[in-house]
Design brief:
Its main location: membrane. This protein is mainly α and 151 residues long. It has a domain at 82-125: Orthogonal Bundle (Arc Repressor Mutant, subunit A). Helices cover 57% and strands 0% of the residues. It has seven helices and no strands. The protein has helices at residues 2-9, 12-15, 42-68, 82-90, 97-107, 111-125, 129-140.
Length: 151
């Protein structure tokens, strides 16, 4: 099973244009080509970057946000309503007036309650100010030559 999967994955038709193959990438005449096995080094590097970012966000960005007065805003959670949740996920996050009227009839809620539910549900999906701060501080700390982020 593994050998057939490997044979399919490394098939020349999948990786090369017509007329080229793995034999064309063999080292010869003093030319050394990259090998497919060299790509494995990218995985530990990617994991290392993820770990470094998590450590930075927890140990540097979060305390810095607290010093600068950036706070986590408490958002109101919506009540569980399968009809509204299904409409929100499958149809649209911003219903039209006719959709709101239809949802009012289906759920037995008032128009204002349905509008409030959708507004709160949209706000739940928005990232918090603290999360935005942490992401922005992680990306601006990687600027070359210490340049400010806004030129």
């Amino acid at each position: 099973m593994v050998s057939s999967l490997s044979a399919w994955f490394w098939n020349e038709r999948l990786w090369f244009p017509e007329g080229l193959g793995w034999a064309d990438l063999e080292d010869k005449d003093g030319r050394v080509y990259a090998k497919a096995r060299d790509l494995w080094v990218a995985l530990p590097i990617a994991v290392a970057f993820l770990v470094i970012r998590q450590i930075f966000e927890r140990l540097v960005a979060t305390p810095l946000a607290a010093v600068m007065g950036v706070k986590e805003k408490v958002r109101l959670t919506v009540s569980h309503n399968p009809t509204l949740e299904s409409f929100y996920c499958n149809t649209t996050k911003n219903p039209t007036q006719s959709s709101i009227d239809s949802l009012c009839k289906q759920t037995g809620c008032s128009e204002r309650q349905v509008q409030r539910w959708f507004r709160r549900r949209r706000n739940q999906d928005r990232p918090s100010l603290l999360k935005k701060f942490k992401e922005a501080s992680a990306s601006t700390s990687q600027l070359p030559n210490g340049l400010p982020p806004y030129g």
